[in-house]
From TrEMBL, chain A:
Bilayer topology annotation: Multi-pass membrane protein
Keywords, alphabetical: Cell inner membrane, Cell membrane, Membrane, Transmembrane, Transmembrane helix, Transport
Species per Swiss-Prot/TrEMBL record: Roseiarcus fermentans
CC terms in the record's Gene Ontology section: plasma membrane
Designated name of the protein: Autoinducer 2 import system permease protein LsrD
Cross-referenced PANTHER family: ABC TRANSPORTER PERMEASE PROTEIN YPHD-RELATED-RELATED (PTHR32196), AUTOINDUCER 2 IMPORT SYSTEM PERMEASE PROTEIN LSRD (PTHR32196:SF71)
From TrEMBL, chain B:
Lineage, highest ranks first: Bacteria, Pseudomonadati, Pseudomonadota, Alphaproteobacteria, Hyphomicrobiales
Subunit relationships: The complex is composed of two ATP-binding proteins (LsrA), two transmembrane proteins (LsrC and LsrD) and a solute-binding protein (LsrB).
Function summary: Part of the ABC transporter complex LsrABCD involved in autoinducer 2 (AI-2) import. Probably responsible for the translocation of the substrate across the membrane.
Transmembrane segments: 21-44, 56-75, 82-100, 106-129, 136-155, 175-198, 227-248, 254-276, 283-305, 311-332
Membrane topology of this protein: Multi-pass membrane protein
Protein name: Autoinducer 2 import system permease protein LsrC
Length: 331, 342
C-alpha cells in the first residue's frame, strides 16, 4: 500500500484560476484587436506593457506581504519618495548606479520601518501602513516640493525608457520579468517562501514550529518596499519627471492585481504566477480601454468592479457549490 | 496568581475600575493634548487666540467631526471604511446638481437627498463586508473608486458653481446662533445624538459588542452581519450629511470634493482614541480628534508651514495614536495579570 502510494506520482492539479486568467487575457486581446487596426503589432503590444510594469513591481512586493496575512498600502507613496530622491541625486550629478542603489536602499529602509511597527510591536498593519502612506507622501512633497523635476539625463532614464532589439522590447519589461522570476523562486522554491505562506495560514503554529515570525515579516516588508524603490527608477525613465504626487492612487491597481491574481487577502494562499497573469490581464484591459477611448474615470470604475469581483469570487464559488449539493449545505 | 478567592474578586472589581479609568483617561488625554497644542500656537502666534480664528477652527472641525464620527461607527465593529470621502463627494455632487436644477425645492426636502444617497452607498459597503465576507479594506477600496468614478461619469467634467445653488444653502452654513457658528452647533448635535444612540440603545450597544468580541456576540445570539450592515449604513448617512454641509461651505462643488477625507476621518477617529481593532472608543473622542486635526491645520497655516507637512504630521499621528492604544491595551493586560484576575 505504502509503496504504491509513493510510486504513483501525484496527479498535478490544474491551477483552475490561473487557466481562467490566461483565457481572459486571450479574450481581452481579441477584444482589443476589434477596437483598433493598430493593436496587432509587436511595437504596440510591447509598448502597452508600460501600463503594468510599475504597478507590477509593487504588486509582486505586495504579494509577499499579503502571503503573510498582512497588507502594505504605503507602497505607492514609497515610489514617490524614490522618484524625488532620484531627482535630488540627479541634481547633484550622482552616477545612476549609485543613485539607483541608494533609492532601493531607502525603499528597504522605509519598508523595514513599516515591518518593525507591524511585526515587532504588533500594531495592525493596515493602520500602520495607512499612516505611513500619508507620512511618506508628505515626506516626498517635503523633499521634492510641489514643483516637478524633469532634467533627468539619459543614464537616469535608461532603465525605463530604452527599448532593445530593434527598439521593440523595453528594458523595463526584461527587468520586470527578472524580478517576477526571482520573486517566484523566492516564494515557491525557498524556505523563506514556505515560511511566509505558513505564517499566513497559522501564525501561532509557525511560531511554535520555530519560525522567526517577526524576522520573516520584517524581511517581506523590506523587500516589498525595495521593489517600490526599483519601481521609482523605472518611473523616472518612463515619465522623465519626478514630483511629490507620483503614483498617487495607483495602489488601487496594485491591490486589484494581487487580489485578482488569487492571493488570499487573509494570507497563506496564492501564487506569484497568478499575480503576474492578473497584471497582464489588467494591462491588456487598460490598453484596450485606451484604444476604445474609454475615459480614465470609467476605467477606474471598471477597476473597482474587478477588485470587488475578485474578492467576492471565492464566496460566490462556495455559494454555487452549496447550491449544487444541497444535502451538504452545512459542511 | 495564588490570591484567595474573595481577594481576587475584590481585585477584579478594582482592576475593572482601573480599566474604566484608563479608557476615560484616553479621551482626557486628547483634551490635554489639545490644550497643549492650543497653548503652543497661542504662544507662537498672536492671532491664534482671537474669536475670529477660533470660529474658523470650529467651522472646519465641524464637518470633519461628522466624517470622523461616521468612520468611528464602522471602526467600532472592527471594520474600516476608506470610501468615506467618495461617499461625501457622490452625495454632495448629486445633491448640489439637483438643487441647481430645482431651485424652488424646500430645505427639508433637499436635506433628505444626501441622507438617502449616503444610506444606499453605505448599505452597499455593508452588504459586501457583512454578507459578501469581503475584507473591509478591499471592499471599500473598490467602492471608493466606484463611487468617485461614477461621480466623474455623472458630472461629465462639469461643476456646480455657487451662483447656481439656492442662496439659503450658502447663507445657512455661515449663520450663527448666539455667536456659535451654526455648522459647529449642527455637528455637535449630530455627534451627541450618535453618541447617545451608541451608548443607550440596544442597537448601539450591539455595535460595541460585535466589535469587542465577535465570538461572544455570536454565542450571545447577535447577528453580526446585521449589526455590521447597520453600522455601514449609518456611516453612509453621516457621510451624506457631512457631504451636504461641505458642499454648502465651499460653494463650488467639484467632482474631487472631499477626496482624501478617508485619511483625515480615520486619523481623527484614531487620534480620538477609537481603536482600529474594534469595540473601544467613542464618537465623542473621534470628534475631539477632528478638533485636534483642525487645530494643527490652523496652527500650521498661521505659522506659514508648507501644506505638505500636514500630510506628514497626519500620517505620523495615526501611527503614534495606534501605538499609544496598543501600549494602553498591553498595560491593561499586564495589570490584569498582576492583580491575579484572569
Amino acid at each position: 500500500m505504502k509503496d504504491d502510494r509513493t510510486k504513483r506520482p501525484v496527479r498535478p492539479q490544474w491551477p483552475a484560476w490561473e487557466m481562467t486568467l490566461a483565457a481572459l487575457i486571450v479574450a481581452a486581446g481579441v477584444w482589443s484587436t476589434t477596437l483598433s487596426p493598430y493593436y496587432l503589432s509587436l511595437d504596440q503590444i510591447f509598448g502597452s506593457t508600460r501600463f503594468f510594469i510599475i504597478p507590477g513591481l509593487l504588486a509582486l512586493g505586495l504579494a509577499m506581504v499579503v502571503s503573510l496575512g498582512e497588507i502594505d498600502i504605503s507602497l505607492a507613496s514609497t515610489v514617490a519618495v524614490g522618484t524625488v530622491t532620484l531627482s535630488k541625486l540627479s541634481m547633484f550629478g550622482v552616477p545612476i548606479g549609485f543613485a539607483a542603489a541608494a533609492v532601493v536602499a531607502i525603499g528597504a529602509l522605509l519598508g523595514t520601518l513599516n515591518g518593525v511597527l507591524a511585526a515587532r510591536f504588533g500594531l495592525p498593519s493596515l493602520a500602520v501602513t495607512l499612516g505611513a502612506m500619508g507620512a511618506y507622501r508628505g515626506l516626498a512633497f517635503i523633499v521634492g516640493s510641489e514643483v516637478g523635476y524633469t532634467d533627468f539625463n539619459d543614464s537616469y532614464r535608461w532603465l525605463g525608457a530604452t527599448r532593445l532589439f530593434d527598439d521593440i522590447v523595453p528594458v523595463s519589461l526584461l527587468a520586470f520579468a527578472a524580478v517576477a522570476v526571482a520573486v517566484w523562486l523566492l516564494m515557491h522554491r525557498t524556505v523563506f517562501g514556505r515560511y511566509c505562506f505558513s505564517i499566513g495560514l497559522n501564525r501561532d503554529a509557525s511560531w511554535f514550529a520555530g519560525v522567526n515570525v517577526v524576522k520573516i515579516k520584517i524581511c517581506a516588508y523590506a523587500l516589498a518596499s525595495a521593489l517600490a524603490g526599483l519601481a521609482a527608477v523605472v518611473w523616472v525613465g518612463q515619465y522623465g519627471s519626478a514630483r511629490g504626487d507620483n503614483a498617487d492612487g495607483s495602489i488601487l491597481f496594485v491591490v486589484t492585481a494581487v487580489v485578482l491574481g488569487g492571493m488570499d487577502i487573509n494570507g497563506g494562499r496564492g501564487t506569484i504566477g497568478g499575480v503576474v497573469l492578473a497584471l497582464m490581464l489588467l494591462g491588456t484591459l487598460r490598453n484596450g480601454m485606451g484604444l476604445a477611448n474609454i475615459g480614465g474615470p470609467t476605467q477606474t470604475v471598471v477597476l473597482g468592479v474587478l477588485l470587488v469581483g475578485g474578492v467576492l469570487r471565492p464566496a460566490v464559488a462556495a455559494a454555487l457549490a452549496r447550491l449544487r449539493r444541497p444535502d451538504n449545505a452545512d459542511v | 496568581m495564588s490570591a484567595p478567592d474573595d481577594a481576587a474578586v475584590g481585585n477584579r472589581k478594582g482592576s475593572r475600575r482601573a480599566i474604566a479609568f484608563v479608557l476615560r483617561l484616553r479621551e482626557a488625554g486628547v483634551l490635554v493634548f489639545l490644550a497643549a497644542l492650543g497653548t503652543l500656537f497661542a504662544v507662537l502666534t498672536n492671532t491664534f487666540l482671537t474669536t475670529q480664528n477660533l470660529t474658523t477652527v470650529a467651522s472646519s472641525a465641524a464637518i470633519l467631526a461628522i466624517a470622523a464620527c461616521a468612520q468611528a461607527v464602522v471602526l467600532l465593529t472592527r471594520n474600516l471604511d476608506v470610501s468615506v470621502g467618495a461617499m461625501m463627494g457622490f452625495a454632495a455632487y448629486l445633491t448640489a446638481d439637483f438643487a441647481a436644477r430645482h431651485p424652488a425645492i424646500a430645505p427639508w426636502q433637499l436635506v433628505l437627498i444626501p441622507l438617502a444617497i449616503g444610506a444606499a452607498l453605505g448599505a452597499i459597503n455593508g452588504l459586501l463586508v457583512a454578507y459578501g465576507k469581503v475584507p473591509a479594506l478591499i471592499a471599500t477600496l473598490g467602492t471608493m473608486s466606484l463611487y468617485r468614478g461614477l461621480t466623474y461619469v455623472y458630472a461629465h467634467g462639469q461643476e456646480v458653481t455657487s451662483s447656481r445653488l439656492p442662496p439659503w444653502m450658502l447663507t445657512s452654513v455661515d449663520a450663527r446662533i448666539a455667536g456659535v457658528p451654526l455648522l459647529a452647533a449642527a455637528a455637535t448635535a449630530i455627534v451627541v445624538i450618535v453618541w447617545a444612540f451608541l451608548q443607550y440603545f440596544p442597537w448601539g450597544r450591539r455595535i460595541y459588542a460585535v466589535g469587542s468580541n465577535p465570538l461572544a456576540a455570536f454565542y450571545f445570539g447577535l447577528r453580526a452581519e446585521r449589526v455590521v450592515l447597520m453600522a455601514y449604513t449609518l456611516c453612509g448617512v453621516l457621510c451624506g450629511a457631512a457631504g451636504l454641509l461641505y458642499a454648502a461651505r465651499v460653494g463650488t462643488v467639484t467632482v474631487v470634493l472631499a477626496s482624501g477625507w478617508e485619511m483625515s476621518s480615520l486619523a481623527a477617529a484614531v487620534i480620538g482614541g477609537v481603536s482600529v481593532s474594534g469595540g473601544a472608543g467613542s464618537v465623542i473622542g473621534a470628534a475631539l480628534g477632528a478638533v485636534v486635526l483642525a487645530t494643527i491645520d490652523n496652527g500650521l497655516v498661521l505659522l506659514a508651514v508648507p501644506e505638505f507637512w500636514r500630510m506628514f504630521i497626519q500620517g505620523v499621528a495615526i501611527v503614534a495614536a495606534v501605538a499609544a492604544d496598543a501600549a494602553i491595551a498591553s498595560g491593561i493586560r499586564a495589570s490584569l495579570r498582576t492583580r491575579g484576575a484572569k
